[in-house]
Amino acid sequence: MTDSLGYRRKFGVIAPSTNTSVQPEFDSMRPVGVTNHFSRIVIPDNPVRNDDDFNKLMNDIRSTLMDSVDAVMTCSPDYIVMGMSAETFWDGLDGSVELQQRVEARAGVKVAMGSDACRAALKAYGGIKRISVITPYMPVGDQQVRKFFADCGFEVVNLKGLKCPGPMLIAHVSEAELRDAIIEVDDPTVDAIVQVGTNLAMARVAGIAEFWLGKPVIAINTATYWWALRQNGIDDKIQGFGKLLSHY
């Protein structure tokens, strides 16, 4: 017998307790027969004013990450989707691979991570070498994102770190602010724009921006959910979030 609602796939999704964007964005992309089951990495909503505070936030996430994996596995999902991104970029490509291996070993199922999803999305579009990046992070987090993309062979031309003052407040960045950030990091030499940080609600904005700029604009929540679907053989084309979900 199969799950009555998740008869195609049940996704276990791991997200910080402070994140209010990734769940509604993932749910808005969900095809019929696929269900999303969230488990929260319980962290305090402490202020983030500098690199030291950001490192403390990362340590808070690491300390309870595996507990959230254990919790979601009690509903027997077919696959895990990481609805958090900073840790997936940490220590570059090698760190990303190591994290994926640890989570898969703990869960006993395969895992989609934002870092891998962004790399796969850029490859799917093809011909992309020079990118700009938007993050909600402090500089120490931005450095990790730069390293990951450099390890994957991409040149980060421009990077806009929004330096959000706390994990919950990332979701308070408006669509207008995201639009302005896209405009700021774009230039004619940039092949694509990538946004990281799953609590930035950029899925809809990225799809609009991609149309007006005439180049890929990849929101990490769109990329991660697209990658999870495609890795599970679900090829449904979904409108409203850019070409990644509607064409690839």
UniProtKB/TrEMBL annotation:
It holds the Pfam family Amdase. Its EC number is 5.2.1.1. The keyword Isomerase applies. The keyword Isomerase applies. It comes from the Bacteria. InterPro entries: Iso_Racemase_Enz_sf (IPR053714), MaiA/AMDase (IPR026286). Keywords: Isomerase. GO terms for molecular function: maleate isomerase activity. This is Maleate isomerase. It comes from Pigmentiphaga litoralis. The lineage of its organism: Bacteria, Pseudomonadati, Pseudomonadota, Betaproteobacteria, Burkholderiales.
